[in-house]
Amino acid sequence: MTVLKTSVLVLDCAEPESLSRFYAELLGATAGPAGGDAELFLVTGHTGVLLGIRRDPHHLPPSWPPPEDSQQAHLRILVAEDSLDEAEREAVALGARPVTAEEDGTRPDSRTTLRRYTDPAGHSFVLAAVAGRSAS
């Protein structure tokens, strides 16, 4: 029998309290310290823990875009196609920094349906449109 498990992606940063609040607001979730681990903060949504943020006082932000177009670990946040512009405004208002503003012609306004950012601590994430349904 397999032991029941769960997993969560954990991002390291110097100030986990503020980064966990950034993701909680961006994802419509809550943030707080993990029980028994003062260095770990959890971002929790209606389906459970979405993300962990761990204190690392020596953290250095990853480089993005990576050299030679190699894929790098990043968060992909799914957004309903008709809410992508609004999600982008929310992310930037919370402190996200746009990395690329590609034009791929997939939308009437020539904006891409995949938009890349870094969070306030420098981690990569993407807002990606989900066609034909809501992102939930």
Characterization of this structure:
There is one protein chain. With 136 residues, the protein is an alpha/beta fold. It contains two helices and eight strands. The strands form two sheets. The chain has a four-stranded mixed β-sheet with strand order 1-4-3-2. A four-stranded mixed β-sheet has the order 5-8-7-6, covered by helices on one side. It starts with 9 loop residues before the first strand and ends in a 6-residue tail after the last strand. 24% of the residues are buried.
How far apart the termini lie comes to 31 Å
SSE order: EHEEEEHEEE
Round the Cα radius of gyration to an integer and report it.
16 Å
Broad shape: globular
The helix fraction, in percent, is 10-25%
Assembly type of the shown chains?
single chain
Largest sheet: 4 strands, mixed
Average residue-wise pLDDT: 83
Counted by DSSP, the helix tally is 2
What structural class do helix, strand and pairing data support?
Answer: alpha/beta
Q: Strand content of the residues, in percent?
A: 35-45%
- Taking pLDDT < 50 over at least 5 consecutive residues as the criterion, the unreliable ranges are none
Beta-strand segment tally: 8
Spatial order of the strands forming the largest sheet: 1-4-3-2
